[in-house]
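Suppose you are handed only these lines of text.
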Amino acid sequence: MDRKYCLSLLLLFASPFAHGGKFFAAAGKVDITPDLKKETVWLAGYGAKGRKPQGIHDRLYARAMVVSDGQRTVALVGLDSIGIFREDVERMRRLLGWNGGERYLFISATHLHSGPDTLGLWGRFPGVSGVDKRYHRRMIESIAGLIRDLSSRLEEAEIAAAGTILDPRGLCKDSRDPVVIDPELNAVQIRPKGRGDAPIATLVRWSCHPEVLMRDNFHITADYPGELCAHIEGKNGGACIFQSGVVGGLLTPDSDKTKQSSERQFSESRRIGRKVADAALKILQGASFRASGDLMFESKILRIPVENSRYLLFLPSLTFGHRLMDREGRSLSRLAPYYLALRHLVFFPLPERLSPWIETEISRVRIGPVEWLGIPGELFPELALGGYDGRFRFGHPLIGPSNPNPPELAQAPRGPYLRQKLKGKHGILVGLANDELGYIIPEYDFQATRGRIMEPRPSGTHYEETNSIGPSATRMLMQAYGEMLD
Ligand SMILES: [Zn+2]
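From them, the structure of the protein bound to zinc ion can be written out as follows.
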């Protein structure tokens, strides 16, 4: 792809570093569980079509903490959802009047696989959206309402952060070679200034797909992040915000899920959620709190092409929650998705000059000692950490002995990797942040069969390519982060 398009970054807005202002904060949650009598939702995740929910096991929430230095304000939201698209985030910002200026909304999804379809990929049939418009509108308005409410009742606060390596064995594993598991657990706590008894919020970031509950589950549940947050809120009070880290690759719960009863799956979800929660609370003990510091945010728009053959075929039903445009950024007509999909189907493949492009957002937030980097999708952990030398394999073979198509590690990118570039001790990489582009795969191992629906797949594990916007996105995103962090 042409380099000048890789550099087509438009600065959205950046708030310069403040000079040690006091912190003010508030946190809370809003129930976003679907009403199964009034809202026709389909469960998202697994395969190409949704599952009709039969009941509710536990409630879904959007949880938020709003922090201000009196001048600038940031809202960090953790959403029990498979993912959220950029246009929805923009809609929330419009509802709040937060499009630019001194306020910034940073929302990330837990990537839940037992909640409503919010991306339009899991309806009754493959290629048919499972999004219920009433539910979707209510979810967006509820989140905006929560942030509005929290912004009106900020109190003076102090913040602490802690991080550790949590041995993933028994908690999370990697289903694709090379085995690279992100073991970093981050925790942040905010409490009223000078009062250590009741936190306002506890934020936990960890990397693993919330899919302890499998495709045979037909009950709505927030999976292990729900258990994690309920455990922390029950023990400590305040709101618990869960942020998903780098889950591509694919990081999945280390529990024997095959042939398990529903009760066993739910008890596994509880076990994993509580274990990670307790580890996060433990590292926060003794952490030192600061009542003032920098508050900064920066956000950039990045234009990238839709290259995935399947996505092109389903353009009319998959709006991606993005406006389609050409490579120069001019909006395409409303009929373009139909025309392009037909052209792709009949005169396969769609020529590169006709590829639709979309805009996504990358972001960086700093509050006192903590710095967040928002990634608009599911980053492969090796792009964040490296680990091609086996340092993050945790007892598993780096390459499975029976892998028929092992990755060529000699071609793998060399460091410094993204986590190292985010130099701070309390650097937090958050996936599915402000957008969901699917998997962000190292280019050297991006293998997809040339075909209308990318089937059959290359041998070995190459499922992630079918749910990725394309290989160019990785190069463009990595370059953009490099520029942002330099
Ligand atoms: Zn995923």
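What can we learn from it? The chain has one domain: 10-297+359-485. The CA atoms of residues 14 and 440 lie 25 Å apart.
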